[in-house]
Design a protein that fits this description.
This protein is of the alpha/beta class and about 375 residues long. Helix content is about 35%, strand content about 15%. The chain has a 6-stranded parallel β-sheet with strand order 5-2-1-6-7-8, with helices on both faces. A 3-stranded antiparallel β-sheet has the order 9-10-11, with helices on one face. A two-stranded antiparallel sheet has the order 3-4.
Length: about 375
């Protein structure tokens, strides 16, 4: 696999960092999850499914778990030994905390100059907001993303997905892999400073036109991706379900409006997004209300246009294509989990559904670092591990 031989120490919690470690483990890296005595918080978030929550299963599977008290000198010494043999460290402490503990980048680099050290935070390691605590919704609010749901004067609503977390994880994985690639030539590691706000702002080119051009917030009523375009919109069906038209290219417009007997509306859809396309939106809304979602799905599937039925999460989970592509995999315990979204023709990933018990790999890892059974027993009694 692509990352075979790479060792990762994962100090992070919740979603962004653990997702990075999970993805690297799926492609061959050894990922060691460092947990505090209370354990990873997602072990307790949600219902237990054969001993593990879905959140934990889908962010921590395939890793090894070591419980380590980093505030104890012997715990710190163990961590530094681990760092010497590692390639990557991922942490999500508030900026400055890792340095105070003794595991910051400069402290680790003194022992392991080739380390790629990725620090995840809400607002970055430096600056006036660096010490502000925040999770996903705060980053979405601060970057204007949360306001993008206020079409037709609606109140801002909590996001349906933690996209700032996911954007952070995706961007940080790219940064880590770039640093590893560069290390092949220089032998030197690097410090990767990743902020949620930076990551999610990089996803906004589609909505910045009026901000940059006119110095104004966008008028969402006329924006293409917020309902202003007739062919990029959600429509209610007869059974109170929905169909989404997801492509406003004119070839799709012409195919559907000709098929529905309204070629006169084609020119309407050439006009700018917003009020000018209202006649087409009204026609499509009335038309989609005449059949069920599944009937429209069957019909539209014959036309070759950009559309999709709006599925709930259970319907989506049951899609055969997700299993065919390995995006859903079944573990030995019979529970289905998310697989890997990265597919290689050569050396494909091999997602492991092994679930790490809290501290279940501590003895193995410490023995590898040269601690004998008597020392391990003493450290456990002292609650260092």
């Amino acid at each position: 696999m692509k990352l075979e031989g790479i060792r990762v120490i994962d100090l992070s919690r919740f979603l962004p960092g653990p997702w990075i470690g999970l993805t690297m483990a799926d492609h061959g890296a050894e990922v060691i999850k460092i947990e505090m005595q209370e354990g990873e918080p997602t072990r307790r978030l949600g219902a237990q499914i054969k001993g593990f929550t879905a959140y934990f299963r889908n962010t921590q599977r395939g890793k090894k778990s070591v419980v380590l008290n980093l505030k104890d000198p012997e715990g710190l010494a163990i961590f530094l030994d681990l760092a010497r043999e590692a390639d990557v460290i991922i942490e999500s402490f508030r900026p400055g905390v890792a340095d105070r503990i003794g595991i910051g980048y400069e402290q680790i680099r003194a022992h392991a100059p080739g380390i790629v050290y990725c620090a995840l935070s809400a607002f970055g390691q430096k600056g006036p907001l660096a010490q502000n605590p925040s999770h996903d919704a705060g980053a979405q609010a601060m970057t204007g993303i949360l306001s993008l749901g206020q079409v037709d004067g609606r109140e801002p609503c909590l996001p349906s997905l933690p996209v700032a977390d996911v954007a952070l994880g995706s961007a940080a994985l790219s940064g880590i892999l770039m640093a590893l690639l560069r290390r092949e030539k220089t032998g030197k590691g690097d410090f990767v400073d990743m902020a949620m706000t930076d990551a999610i702002m990089s996803w906004t080119p589609h909505i910045l036109s009026t901000v940059i051009d006119k110095g104004q917030a966008p008028d969402l009523s006329v924006e293409r991706l917020h309902g202003g375009a007739a062919f990029y919109n959600v429509y209610r069906t007869q059974d109170n379900k929905h169909i989404v038209l997801s492509g406003a290219e004119m070839n799709f417009v012409e195919i559907l409006l000709n098929a529905l007997g309204r070629p006169d509306l084609i020119e309407v859809c050439r006009k700018p997004w917003g009020p000018a396309q209202q006649p087409a939106r009204e026609f499509l809304a009335a038309t989609f209300a005449t059949r069920t979602r599944d009937a429209w799905d069957e019909y539209l599937g014959t036309l070759g246009i950009c559309y999709a039925p709006v599925l709930n999460m259970k319907e989506a989970w049951d899609l055969p294509v997700l299993r065919e592509r390995g995006m859903i995999v079944r573990g030995e315990d019979g529970v289905e989990n998310l697989g890997t979204p990265i597919h290689f023709r050569d050396e494909p990933g091999q997602p492991s559904c092994r679930m790490p018990e809290k501290g279940g790999d501590t003895d193995e890892i410490l023995a590898r670092l040269g601690r004998d059974a008597q020392t391990i027993a003493r450290l456990r009694e002292k609650k260092v591990i």
